[in-house]
Write the structure tokens for this entry.
Amino acid sequence: MKVKINYKNINFKKISHNLVLFTDDRFSLSPLKKYISKLEYDYVNDLLKTSDLKKNLLIFELNSKKKIVLVSVKKNLSFSDVENLGAEFYKSINHKKNNEFFINSDSFSSKLKNFIGYFLHGLKLKSYEFNKYKSKNETRLLSLNVIGNKNKFKAEQKLRFKALEEGTFFTRDLVSEPGNILHPDEYAKRLKSLKKDGLKVNIYNEKKLKKLGMNALLGVGQGSIKGSYLVTIEWKGAKNNSKPLAFIGKGVCFDTGGYSLKPAKFMEDMTYDMAGSAAVVGLMKNLAIRKAKVNVVGVVGLVENMVSGNAQRPGDIVKSYSGKTIEILNTDAEGRLVLADAITYTEKKFKPKFMIDLATLTGAIIVSLGSEYAGLFSNDDKLSKQLIDAGDKVEEKLWRMPLNKNFDKLINSKNADMQNINYVGGAGSTTAAQFLQRFILNKTPWAHLDIAGMAFSKYGGALNSGGATGYGVRLLNQLIEDYYE
């Protein structure tokens, strides 16, 4: 459903269409008397006596044209709570027809600044749909008219919400695309479009990557007829030449597992194995749109892990960009190979203040944390705390997992510097993170976010309706706003 938002100054007593009013946690109607007629007041007040007041939202149908929606605003709400209220309101409307609502901004008394902005932001995030490949796609319209004296907020606040929405939706679009459409060649092509937002985009094709010695990344993609790429995306928003913040994403556009072939029931979802890269791309778009006052670089490795006569074999040994050699014992542990070269290159090329990588890296993290938390692994306590606090604010939660030298030795190889899986089994997410840590050469603060359980939801969440979630964009934007801008 398409959402259109208007800001109007009209007499609320003349409204004959659906009306949204905010009330306290007890659904007290008396403070709202001035916004509705006496007849409407008496009718709704009577129905409230038999309503479930534990709900966040109550809808009362007055006639065929008008409903009154009461939204309960509890004390000490966070902005995330308000976003969830907006999403819940969107979920409650009839999506089979066009709708128009008038939202009375004067009816709430919350001390939270920009309450209406957060409410509408949550609603917009919830409204996302990916239906471009449906032959019958009738777009319905939800018109929201925000009225009252509290409906105005600063242009920079509007821009912030717009940037987050566009960045998140861009991420969701990328993750939702099927593998036959969004292969590495097409993905790299789409990233060129970010130049129009003011981002500097450099695309390294296979020829350039071979020259650089990125054989770990290239090995993953060598079985595909599509190309393999490393793409750097730069935003210079600070007035000085301060070290950039670096975000690195795994972009495996489709993952068969290679010769370590995945079971069919797990392979169908592997179009979203590039969600880490999509989060980085969406974040960079968001920062450029809102003209963030910080220097940031995004780096994504784009490959396709296929089976062919030219595909990488179990037992192969490759030399990474770092110079370290890797024995490939499992071709389905491919994301860490892509990230290994990307991490070392980012550290050497950009000398960042910190590096954060995002990847749908292991099924083991889903076993550990389900779809409630992403796994956080880090060599830096300060960065870890900042990430956890930012995640709690936007409800993109993180749980810190252990790193330890005893885990690290489990990936030692007899034939190379290391192997790409743990030779005794177990601790799959931790040993994957230990593997990545070996490619940090200069002790740069680093965090690895394993988002395998968070990037895609079959059932939907508070701010998404199922499918690609866009996880990571809002989390990392909050981190930047709170600590680095």
